[in-house]
Design brief:
Layout: H1 2-17, H2 28-38, H3 50-62, H4 67-81, H5 86-97, H6 100-116, H7 119-129, H8 132-164
């Protein structure tokens, strides 16, 4: 389960930090590592204002790559591995999909977006995701990310075989 949370935090960091930098780092690894290390969880309810409403609108438009769908994917992946008892898994899945975990994560993601984007930037993103190109990006981005990660793993395997044959 710790891997699950680590994966989600990484996804949140990559998704949220891809748009605006607050410091200069020599690599994306350093940038992500720094942002995750310094991240402070805030699950409190966000204010019901135009910024929060624009974040909610953006997250609904993005659809194809939102953290809730990533959690569903990761939960299904963990379920298929059968590393935890079925009853414990069912409780955790319910917690993350419909219980306090979902509410807390939704609040945390809103706070992350509030820290990373201005209202003007959110309006621009909403405008983009309403276009056909934005909708295609939204639908295809999760597949692109997963295939890219798979490509990296395959290339790593080729490298390891080459090293073993030396």
């Amino acid at each position: 389960m710790k891997r699950c949370f680590g994966f989600f935090i990484l996804l949140l960091s990559v998704s949220a930090s891809a748009q605006k930098d607050t410091a200069t780092y020599s690599s994306i690894f350093e940038k992500i590592t720094h942002s995750v290390k310094d991240y402070k969880l805030d699950t409190s309810a966000a204010p019901n204002d135009k910024l929060t409403n624009k974040i909610i609108e953006l997250r609904q438009l993005k659809g194809g790559f939102n953290i809730n769908e990533a959690i569903d994917y990761k939960l299904e992946e963990d379920k298929q591995k059968a590393e935890i008892p079925a009853d414990a898994f069912a409780k955790f899945a319910a917690f993350m999909q419909t219980g306090d975990g979902k509410k807390w994560l939704d609040n945390a993601v809103i706070w992350i977006y509030r820290q990373r984007f201005t209202y003007k930037e959110l309006k621009q993103l909403v405008k983009f995701y309403k276009t056909s190109a934005g909708q295609k990006m939204s639908a295809d981005f999760p597949i692109i990310m997963m295939q890219s990660l798979a490509a990296g793993e395959m290339i790593k395997g080729v490298y390891e075989k080459r090293q073993a044959n030396k």
